[in-house]
Amino acid sequence: MKHTAAIAKTEDLSKSTIMQLALCAGLAFYGIVFLWNFFERGIFALGINASVFLALCLWLFVWTLRKKGRYSRSDFAWIIPIALIMASYAFYDNLFLKMTNFLVLPISFVIFYNQAVLPDKKTKPWDFEFILKVIGRLFSFFKDIRVVCSSYVNLILPARKAKQRIAARILMGLILFFALAFTIVIPLLSAADTIFAEKMQHLYQLIKQFISPLCIYKLIALAVLSVVLAAVLRAWSRDFHYKEKEKQNTNIDTIVSGIVLGGILVLYILFLWVQVHRLWVGTLPFDFKETEDLVKSGFWQLLFLSLLNIAIYFFTYRKTVAQLQKLLGAFTVTSLLLLISAGYRMTMYVTYYGFSYEKFFASYAILYCAVVFIWLISRLMMKQRSDILKFLAFLFIWMYALVTIFPVEQTIMRTNIVLAQGDGARLRLFEMTMLSPDVLGLIRQYQQQGKLREPVGYLAREGEAKSKEEFDWNPWIERQEKVVEDKKWYELNVMNIHYLQ
After folding, report:
1. Collapsing DSSP states into helix, strand and coil, what is residue 453?
2. Among candidate residues 161, 121, 168, 113, the one with its CA nearest the CA of residue 141
3. pLDDT band (50, 70, 90) for residue 161
4. What is the C-alpha to C-alpha distance for residues 126 and 386, in angstroms, rounded to an integer?
5. What is the tens place of the pLDDT at every residue in 96-130?
6. 361: buried, middle or exposed (CB in 10 Å: 19+, 13-18, 0-12)?
7. Distance (Å, rounded) from C-alpha 114 to C-alpha 17?
8. DSSP structure class, residue 349
9. What does 22-39 look like in DSSP terms, one character per residue?
């Protein structure tokens, strides 16, 4: 206890620590004021406000990185794509990407920021030990929460003012009591006894005359967010060291690896030979289910082979004799051939059935895998050992960042409108009602131009009535307009502002 108090007191005297605590509290205050509507309206409440909040958080962590002497120009390789992802909230309402950001952004930031703290980050390889250490550092901020709380108390009421500190402790106890009483204990007791609930309603009404429950919730959230931000900043900025468990020049058994690689390569060739009549398809079957199975089977083959090849590379790269390294090249070339076929099938699929979220990002995954395979092939021609895991991570974050600021929904909409005019089109334009207000302006424009009619030839082949030729877009337009109109000025994004103008 004395040691912890001493640490908190010493840190309280540090100007850098005071600055960090103040900045964390300021960021938490900004988040509570401008992001609170997220709990009521979800993703649509995140616009320019979210981008500014995330940008300020990024600046705080990079500023701390500079103060620690760990910042270098090479860090731009991860700072720029992270910043682009954060900025995407200020551009689009794309629900798919905004939801995906909740998973990709924190995981990517944890990995790249913690590797930036490494003293030898340019040469340190990414291996299993690195991943395990990063996971450990991810949860390391829990042990800093108590120290941060003490630091905030010392910042508000310095330790030398003993009487004020006692008053602060009494106030803290009262705050915790009322928070637990009115959020957990009283609601549970009220549910168990209606008479008790009626009595408590009078108490609630009396309290509401002086203090709003929403105000209390926001104050609690402000305190929690301030402490968590400061604890995370403190934990992740701490020195980071780890030892490599596996030596770079360790070779695996030549006979075992030769049998495994050779056997799998034979299976690959046999598999491709059996599937050769399905690899290059001139036309797609008219039946949608059959077409979907044909295309998706190629996509899952791609995914499986990609993961298998990456695993093979990770465990055998530069750890076998030269002859076996050539087998790795054969694996990759084989996968690349299948990838080209899968890409060709996907192109035909989109040509007939149009774009959707699934088909757009499946196509983007094909592009990602193509870059990976070409890079893996090139690595076998280099004398210097390459860090495969690090390349995959950086390639992913850059390609993901670029797609977040790319007008995905507008591209889907414009492409499908063009494809619907072609002969043999099988897409249904009404399926684009899944899109967000990003295309609200385009929908209005195409509606006025009469381009939102379903392909007549498709309806005739399906035996559907001509009355289904034109889908009523007005309910969708009204819903999206209400979404935009309900936003606060700081929740808007570029596409919303463009539409409102």
Report:
1. strand
2. 113
3. low
4. 10
5. 999 999 999 999 999 999 999 988 888 888 888 88
6. middle
7. 20
8. H
9. HHHHHHHHHHHHHSTTHH
Please state, in angstroms and rounded to a whole number, the distance separating the CA atoms of residues 459 and 469: 7
- Average pLDDT for the chain: 80
Where do we find the tokens 């108090």? 5
% pLDDT > 70, the chain: 74
Whether 478 shows a pLDDT value over 80: the answer reads yes
Cα 46 to its chain centre, rounded Å, is 14
Contacts of 277 (CB under 8 A, 6+ apart): none
424 confidence band (pLDDT: 50, 70, 90): low
Q: Residue 272 burial (CB < 10 Å; 0-12/13-18/19+)?
A: middle
Q: What is the pLDDT of residue 62?
A: 95
Angle between helical axes of 254-274 and 288-316 (0-180°, round to 10): 160
Q: How many residues appear in the chain?
A: 501
What's the burial of 98, exposed, middle or buried (CB within 10 Å: 0-12/13-18/19+)? Answer: buried
> DSSP 3-state assignment of 117?
coil
* 498 closest CA partner among 381, 407, 374: 407
Task: Supply 495's token pair.
Answer: 């596409």
> Mutual orientation of helices 254-274 and 322-353 as an angle, nearest 10°?
30
Residue 357 to residue 355: CA distance in whole angstroms: 7
Residue 44 CB partners (closer than 8 Å, separation 6+): 93, 483, 486, 487, 491
> Can you read off the two tokens belonging to residue 291?
């077409």
Three-state secondary-structure class, residue 386:
coil
Tokens 């909409």 locate to 413
CB 245 within 8 A of CB 128: yes
User: Residue 318: which region, alpha, beta or left (left: phi > 0; alpha: psi -120 to 50)?
Assistant: left
What does the alpha-carbon distance between residue 440 and residue 429 come to, in Å, rounded to a whole number?
A: 14
Distance, in Å, from the CA atom of 344 to the CA atom of 338, rounded to the nearest integer, reads 10
- Is it the case that residue 323 has pLDDT exceeding 70? no
Our measurement of the distance from residue 17's CA atom to the centroid of its chain's CA atoms, rounded to an integer in Å, reads 30
The candidate with the shortest Cα–Cα distance to 134, out of 114, 156, 161, is 114
Q: pLDDT-derived band of residue 158, with 50, 70 and 90 as boundaries?
A: low
Using H for helix, E for strand and C for coil, what is the string for 59-88?
A: HHHHHHHHHCCCCCHHHHHHHHHHHHHHHH
Give residues with Cβ within 8 angstroms of 444, minimum separation 6. Answer: 477
